[in-house]
């Protein structure tokens, strides 16, 4: 999940549109239904998978049909504008579905901030378990992302808050509710139980969907869903503390070098000569990129912590297993230059250029996952304050200020943030007390290497609202495709998730006569 | 609760603004805080209470302070318009509150379609039990009713769907959530448990509030809340069947006379002479009132059924105990004229003129309870279809057609109804199966004399989502002030409600350390 800061777009700047292009290619090859895209050859695909660092066989290929559903712009009001329509994209895979006649289940991914294909490819768990459950798979794109764009397209939709203002989590949940209800009706599958899955913001949506729409879903797997990172339930410095601890856990020196680097970067940035040096040291394509250098490095650190997966993966970037370890190795390398900037460059080069294809870094790059709308969400309701602990944070001189963000929101969108809205609408304070006697059937997975875990639910709430915590886990690692190299703890996490979902289904079927 | 038809305003036409005026007088006398209104003498009040058919002593007088809270127009979107403000009125009584230091409870009435004073005066149960629970009482007015009017007033707010479109149940629930959260913070009463109460539409809101905002309320008493009268979960003819059965239970003849009267009324309406006769027979003030005669009679029947209370009451009209029995007596009276129209007049005269003050009926009257906005709600989301069973209904020739309503909605407001929205947003289908393992702490009270009970929850769902059903009860009779003449069954209902609420509170306090 992106966090709100000027760093936001940096994660994409070097990958250029390649990942987005790749995503479409992979998806298209496996489609077996409507609205097929042009298809690359199978050998080309194998090469792409290889580049992605994934090892897939054909049987678990990401396959789906692409469909569209007509939604109202606004579900909660009845103004003339509320009746404006847009097309919401969803992907569907019925290969293993047992069908409506057997009330076989429907597994729905509650899409988050980006192209739905991106999340679909990174939620292999659903494909992996579909045969066992004879489940229909549905991946719904979040409004205002990807193709699910109101007002005819992004240019108008994102042009100002009069059009973009209908981008909100509550509208998105209602979209899901309406689409799922209609889909079940069309499939004559009214009695098929729905389980929702989501990771990161999608995980929050999955959990909130179970809380708000229990009549539509029987349970939710909310993976790495920081539903407590609002309204200061979680101390604002927690996110940076986890990132910092990840790096510190690899080496004390790594942590120290990064922590001290900000002062050096500031100092060098104060002279023209220093800037020229920095440009060369970090192989920036343009001198203008310099202004974004600190944000670019910050993103590399926190996103490496998020995606510190035990196997190679290409979620945000194409990375080796345990990227934080690799980055710290570059910083600590005894054979490397003694110059601290060269060492930072080495770490950044691992994060942004693990394949070694780039000769220089373009910090004014693109948004291959289509996440731009998150800026608006962070400027309105998704207010997750960040701060730094002077001892524990390695970002202490890199300042993210609530006040600065607030000003930026107002100047960029003309919106005023509603920092208490998420907890008012969905809860969060005293969650154990509140949900102990209320909710049921939610799994909160968190990996403690993931900085977002600091805002996650880390303890069981009652006998069916359960926390699964993996000490070595990263951001929704459980949702990734299983690989032969997965460590045992990850296999155990997934086994437990599967057995919990089995229990939900079994209880549902036993209650079906009601 | 009003139902959507052209009959809507008829319940008010004869009472003129007297009830509204009276309501304000009564409220004002008991205020002991801010924004006091001019105060009538105590002897004048005694007279007013007597006219209302109520016997009240000073200790249970309806007392409150009037306050206002600033709300955003739209909670679910972030357009510039969403930030427009309006003042939401609420009434508060802290006379018996144990205070924040003891975490004493807060009882909140979730206001429905009308002036909040109207519901406050008809929810004496909350005043009756406040001392026992040391509870703070809060009655929140629903947006777009009473004084809680966006856009500076009703003239603009109701002028078209661009302004009125923000009148919706979801926005209202969010208003409640925000107001309660803010109020608790201001009172430093964050740990005081909130129990919500509501009758009719307010009862639906109370139940939905517990379902959607369990982090804000620990339980809901949803009285006469027809949450299943949507999307054909309840057969559309059910409402009229109950009204008809109420009249039939008094006498078979009463039912038959009413059932046959529609044909006679139609026939007479086809000639000028017939119209003149009807005007005279029903003592209509103006010949023009004739066009509304059928609706006026229809309203008298169904509203008498709704308010078939065991003691005199003035909720919709000033009525004796068991008004349906009185109306049937008028129809069956062996000493009355043999003319069927005279007998219908006798019944209508009981409903609309029990005090005998009116010399003629003005069918173009006013809206003393401020319910006009319900028309818009029924034209958008509150779609509760009505139909007639040819055998069981006494309204068989009085036709309420979904298609006609649909056309009227579109022509009046330019809105298209969303008949599946309520069940999509709040559920309702298979409610037992859905809520069995999910919800907790809701009481659904229904009186089977009340036609709305047909859309109520009449069976326990789990050990804490409970149905209390009173065979002889009418529309939210349990919420009314206790009187010395209350039958035992009504005392038992209230005792049970009190003991259930006690249990919720006790559980809450035992979980407070969590």
UniProtKB/TrEMBL annotation, chains A, B:
What is the protein name stated in its UniProt record? Lysosomal Pro-X carboxypeptidase
The GO molecular function terms of this record are: dipeptidyl-peptidase activity; serine-type exopeptidase activity
Which keywords label this protein?
Answer: Glycoprotein, Hydrolase, Protease, Signal
Its lineage reads: Eukaryota, Viridiplantae, Streptophyta, Embryophyta, Tracheophyta
**Which superkingdom is the protein from?**
Eukaryota
Cleavable signal peptide: 1-30
Please provide the Gene Ontology terms (biological process) for this protein: proteolysis
Q: Which family does it belong to?
A: Belongs to the peptidase S28 family.
> Pfam families attached here?
Peptidase_S28
- What organism does the UniProt record list as the source? Araucaria cunninghamii
């Amino acid at each position: 999940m992106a966090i709100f800061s000027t760093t936001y777009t940096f994660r994409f700047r070097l990958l250029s549109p390649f990942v987005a292009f790749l995503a479409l290619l992979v998806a298209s090859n496996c489609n077996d239904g409507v609205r097929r895209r042009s298809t690359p050859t199978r050998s080309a695909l194998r090469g792409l998978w290889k580049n992605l660092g994934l090892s897939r066989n054909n049987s678990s290929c990401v396959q789906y049909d692409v469909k569209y559903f007509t939604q109202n712009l606004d579900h909660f009001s009845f103004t003339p504008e509320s009746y404006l329509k847009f097309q919401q994209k969803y992907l569907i895979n019925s290969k293993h579905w047992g069908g409506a006649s057997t009330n076989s289940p429907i597994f729905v991914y509650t899409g988050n901030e980006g192209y739905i294909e991106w999340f679909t490819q990174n939620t292999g768990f659903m494909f992996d378990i579909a045969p066992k459950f004879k489940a229909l798979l549905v991946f719904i794109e979040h409004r205002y992302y990807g193709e699910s764009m109101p007002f005819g397209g992004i240019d108008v939709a994102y042009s100002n808050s009069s059009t973009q203002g209908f981008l909100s989590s509550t509208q998105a949940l209602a979209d899901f509710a309406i689409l799922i209800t209609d889909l079940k009706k069309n499939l004559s599958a009214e009695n098929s139980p729905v389980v929702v899955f989501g990771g990161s913001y999608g995980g929050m949506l999955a959990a909130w969907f179970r809380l708000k729409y229990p009549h539509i879903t029987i349970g939710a797997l909310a993976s790495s869903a920081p539903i407590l990172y609002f309204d200061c339930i979680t101390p604002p410095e927690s996110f940076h503390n986890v990132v910092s601890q990840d790096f510190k856990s690899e080496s004390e020196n790594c942590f120290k070098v990064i922590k001290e680097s900000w002062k050096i970067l500031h100092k060098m940035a104060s002279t023209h000569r220093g800037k020229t040096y920095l440009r060369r040291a970090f192989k920036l394509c343009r001198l203008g990129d310099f202004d974004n250098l600190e944000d670019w490095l910050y993103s590399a650190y926190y996103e490496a912590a998020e995606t510190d997966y035990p196997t190679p993966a290409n979620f945000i970037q194409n990375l080796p297993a345990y990227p934080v370890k690799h980055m710290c190795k570059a910083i600590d390398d005894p054979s490397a230059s003694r110059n601290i900037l060269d060492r930072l460059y080495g770490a950044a080069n691992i994060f942004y250029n693990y394949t070694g294809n780039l000769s220089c870094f373009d910090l004014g790059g693109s948004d291959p996952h289509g996440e731009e709308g998150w800026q608006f969400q962070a400027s309105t309701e998704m207010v997750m304050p960040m701060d730094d602990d002077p001892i524990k944070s390695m970002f202490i001189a890199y300042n993210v200020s609530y006040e600065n963000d607030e000003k930026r929101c107002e100047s960029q969108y003309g919106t005023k943030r509603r920092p208490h809205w998420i907890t008012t609408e969905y809860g969060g304070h005293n969650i154990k007390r509140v949900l102990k006697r209320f909710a049921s059937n939610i799994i909160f997975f968190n990996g403690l290497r993931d900085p977002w875990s600091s805002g996650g639910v880390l303890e069981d709430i009652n006998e069916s609202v359960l926390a699964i915590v993996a000490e070595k886990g990263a951001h929704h690692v459980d949702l990734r495709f299983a690989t032969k190299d997965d460590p045992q703890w990850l296999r155990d996490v997934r086994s437990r998730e599967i057995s919990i979902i089995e229990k939900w289904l079994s209880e549902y079927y036993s209650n079906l006569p009601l």
